[in-house]
Write a structure and sequence with these properties.
With 252 residues, the protein is of the alpha/beta class. The chain has helices spanning 16-27, 39-51, 66-80, 104-131, 153-173, 193-197, 203-210, 221-232; strands at 7-10, 31-36, 55-60, 85-88, 135-140, 178-185, 243-246. Helix 2 (39-51) links the parallel strand 2 and strand 3 (55-60).
Length: 252
């Protein structure tokens, strides 16, 4: 059990990569707070973890609000006695389109969910980690922050910010025994796939995007979960400031 006796909070865990991470953590012994703005989805994932013999509780949380972020993190301490791992996985994107067609509302939303949420979570989680002698923060970024492409300019820029934040946080929080790393997935089969493609989700369009990935497939929740498991585990206890590309070679 690589996360035995650990307690983790995973945001955006009601589906996709977040659900995969939450389930994998539970399989490896962690107690997990499954957090999502979609409460019923979070409840479903937590129930699936429980039915499989794991420990989990669901929390409905809007990560763009500090009060809800604080409540989400304190739910881990109140429910399981401590907090060791925070995965900032919640994310959103405007549709793939010409940069001038992205509305101001869409711009504000993508920055609030992808960037400001990490700031708010950091304000709340660092004092908790200091209380418990350290911790791990994992930020879900994207290959879009490393190898941006047209149509997602403002989304790309949020992930560039996440990457820079991750490295800077790693240095600043290292004296407090808090490791900070990022995961950069390539496009995966999640609810945002059609948003990222900007065209209908058809076999032909999938093939066109898949052709840009050297290993010849999209990422899966399990791919991302395995990376998040490693970075959260003691096996990675000398890794901080790492941006791990889980992309089948896309960024080469």
């Amino acid at each position: 059990m690589r996360l035995e006796n650990k307690v983790a909070v995973v945001t955006g865990a009601g589906s996709g990569f977040g659900a995969g991470i939450a389930k994998r953590y539970a399989e490896e012994g962690a107690a997990v707070v499954v957090a999502d703005i979609n409460g019923p989805a979070a409840e479903k994932v937590a129930a699936e973890i429980g039915h499989a013999g794991g420990r989990a509780t669901a929390v409905t949380a809007d990560v763009t609000r500090r009060d809800q972020t604080a409540a989400m993190l304190h739910a881990a301490v109140e429910g399981f006695g401590r907090l060791d791992i925070l995965v900032n996985n919640a994310g959103w994107s405007h549709r793939n389109k010409w940069l001038l067609d992205v509305t101001e509302e869409e711009f504000d939303r993508v920055y609030a969910i992808n960037v400001k949420s990490i700031y708010l979570a950091t304000l709340e989680v660092v004092p908790l980690f200091q209380r418990f002698g350290g911790g791990v923060i994992i930020n879900t970024s994207s290959t879009a922050g490393l190898r941006p492409r047209p149509g997602l300019t403002w989304y790309n820029s949020t992930k560039g910010a996440v990457n820079n934040m991750t490295k800077s946080m790693a240095v600043e929080l290292a004296p407090h025994k808090i490791r900070v790393n990022g995961i950069c997935p390539v496009i995966g089969e999640t609810a945002l796939m059609e948003t990222f493609m900007g065209v209908p989700d058809t076999p032909e369009n999938r093939q066109r995007f898949m052709a840009t990935i050297p290993l010849g497939r999209f990422s899966t929740p399990l791919d991302i979960a395995q990376a998040a498991l490693f970075l959260a585990s003691d096996e990675a206890n000398f890794l901080t400031g790492v941006l791990l590309e889980v992309d089948g070679g896309r960024c080469i």
